[in-house]
Amino acid sequence: MGLYRDEQGMALIGVIMAVLIFSSLCGALLFMAEKDNLMANDEEAALKALYAADSGIRAVLMEMQDNPAITYQNVMAICKNLTERKIPVGGAVIDTIKPEYAGDMVKISATGICGRAKKELIAYISMPSESKLRPLLNGFTVGSLPGLTVSSNGIMRGNIFSCGDVCLGESAAVFGDIYALGDVEIGSEAQVEGNVTARGTITCGENASVKGEIQPFCGFIPEVPVFPELDRRYFFEQAVGQEGHYYGKDKTSKHFFGNDLVNMFGVYYVEGDVVIASGGTEYSGNAAIFAEGRIVVHDDMLPIDAGSSLALISAGDLELNGTFHGVIIAGGELKGELRIMGIAAANSIGDCSLNEFTYCEDVVNGLEKYLALDGTPAKLEIWRELYDIY
Question: In the chain, what is the straight-line distance between the N-terminal and C-terminal CA atoms, in Å?
Fold first, then answer.
């Protein structure tokens, strides 16, 4: 009987120990489950806070992209408005958005909050800019001294814009207006069908005629655009994109022959010089050729059809030796025998004979994107999380 009682006691103790062990395991499991649940909730809250901060940055970016003329002061006002509104985003809130001036970019610090989770993101957004080239596309533009000389018997059908002087040779004719920051000299027998406006003197030779108004020593600055620094980065990014063509870092000359000028499209970016050989008298398609060096054209360049257009843009000198139909932009000197139908702009004029120019604004059709004529939109350059805050 005593032995039986002892066995019952041992069994009871065993049951109690099993219950205790099982209870401990259950408690541990419950604790771990609760801990995992809390961690999951924290991670979810942190992710929501991160999305809220990102939404704040995207909101600023969209405002900047919608307004190409936006200023840093405008960005400050947008950030202040978004901060005050405490906009909810998926269970979190955009807490603060702070701008900081960074030259041609703006630094945006955005904070999102969800519960006790807080995330801060830093982004650098490039400021949008209006087109640098569009002001040059209104006629024949010269961006520096000494200015522009039209050859004797030369014909200019369009407006002339010069940061220096303008000199018309004998019997030259301008069917448009002349704007000069220097002096204007109109040779004998020369004629101007439009107005002549200059900050300096205006002199007329024997039998010269001006049918419009003559305004020397004008008290205002004539509407002469400033020749900008060419945006190499924009042309490079266009060239290395899907529709572009990039020619290497060895900086050797790139030669274009007749077949190379057929069905052209996109931006052609050349690290060195560009030579368009003789015999390439016609082109087709819509394209812009940008050269880090100079561009030399040895023959006529005319479009095969009305839908084709071509722009030649050089960081260095640009030399024409034939009739060209399209857009000419020379970051250096414009040289050669000039007979241009379209648009021309040069930082300066070199050794050349300006025989004929006919302004035609339609030559930019199909080139708007390649020349950034709509300006450069705001762009998210850098995006990163500052640090984790719980």
Answer: 66
